[in-house]
Amino acid sequence: MIEVFRKNQRGLMLLVAILTIVSFIILYNTTQLEQLADNRTPSIYGRALDQAAIERQVKNYQLTLALGQLGLIQKLGGASEDRDMALTNFIWNLLVLQHESAKMGIHPTDSQVAARIKEMETFQTSGQFDPVKYSKFLAEQLTPRGFTERQLEEVVRDALRLEEVEKVVQAPAALGSGEVEATKRIFQPVTASYVKFDKSKAADGITTTPEEINSIYEQNKANLLTQETRGVEAVVFELPADSNPEGKEKVEALQALANAASSFVESISKEGLDFQKAAGKAGKPVQKISPFDRTGLQETPDTGAIASALPELAPYAFQLAGPGGTTDVIQAGDAFYILHLTAVDPVRQLTLDESRGRIEAQIRANKAEQAFATSANSAFNAFKAAIDGGKSFAEAAAAQNLEVQKISNVIPAGKDTKPEDQMLAAGTLLLRDGELSGLERAPWGAFAIQLDSRGPIDPKELEGRETEIREGLLANKRDVLFAEWLRSRREQAGITVPAANQG
Question: Which of 16, 183, 287, 450 could join 476 via S-S bond, C-beta 3.0 to 4.6 A?
Answer without folding.
Answer: 16
